[in-house]
Design goal:
Elements lengths: L5 E6 L4 H15 L3 E8 L12 H19 L3 E7 L8 H14 L3 E5 L10 H17 L8 H4 L10 E5 L6 E4 L4 H9 L9 H13 L12 E8 L3
């Protein structure tokens, strides 16, 4: 997998991006890629604390996501602010993702795989992945979709080259994160409201399992992240 000059991560909840592609994001940023985030929900339902409120949790998770992105060197986080469970495959949500793609002009878009068939069939993940795919192709490409982006904001249409879906069951692309596993762990530790004290061990173990499927059988690869790659522009 080539390293792009610009990448956009479209993530459903705070902490999903760090779990799914944090090692790749850290690696690419260190090598010169500019990375931007679109965070779709505010994470306001992700707590089992009976004293927690949605309003307070949203504020906590906003701050955690900002700190995690800062730790990796992400250039900007766009917070769409939908409540957990509030993502829909509709023109409003799609238009916001199209706007981000046209604004940042990424070669590669990351998102959650909407095609899972087994464990963790989270609705927000499915909505995020499907609408990200549609926004990248054909909506961001075609000028007659959301023409106000061009006429009122002087944005340009854009052709995304590749989408990398994390959480995929049919992985076909592996990225070596051996040198960035510590940054991945550090960024995820910023999400203190969500992760436990054994996050380092969890991440290393789960990344090791992914690396065990590394198709090149490169013995120098200790940790890897796996994706399903959709090539839009060749």
């Amino acid at each position: 997998m080539y390293r792009p000059d610009c990448a956009l991560v479209i993530t459903p909840h705070p902490d999903d991006a760090e779990i799914g592609c944090g090692g790749t994001v850290s690696k690419w940023i260190a090598e010169g890629t500019k990375v931007f985030y679109v965070l779709c929900t505010n994470g306001d339902k992700g707590s089992d604390d009976p004293e927690m409120t949605s309003e307070r949790l949203a504020k906590i998770r906003y701050e955690e996501q900002e700190e995690a992105a800062k730790a990796m060197g992400v250039s900007e986080v766009v917070h769409l602010g939908y409540p957990d469970g509030g993502l829909n495959d509709d023109a409003e949500f799609r238009g916001k993702l199209v706007h981000a793609i046209r604004k940042f002009q990424p070669e590669v878009v990351f998102s959650t795989d909407p095609m899972r068939r087994s464990f963790y069939l989270h609705r927000d993940h499915r909505m995020c992945g499907q609408v990200s795919l549609d926004a990248a192709f054909p909506f961001a490409r075609d000028r007659l979709h959301y023409p106000e982006h061009l006429t009122e904001e002087s944005l340009q249409t854009h052709k995304v080259a590749d989408i990398l879906f994390w959480g995929a069951e049919d992985i076909d692309t592996y990225i070596d994160i051996t040198d960035s596993i510590n940054q991945k762990i550090t960024s995820l530790e910023k999400h203190a409201s969500q992760v436990g004290s054994d996050i380092g061990k969890y991440l290393k173990d789960s990344s090791m399992r992914t690396a065990s499927k590394w198709e090149s059988k490169d013995s120098s690869v200790v940790y890897a992240e796996g994706f399903r790659r959709v090539q839009i522009r060749r």
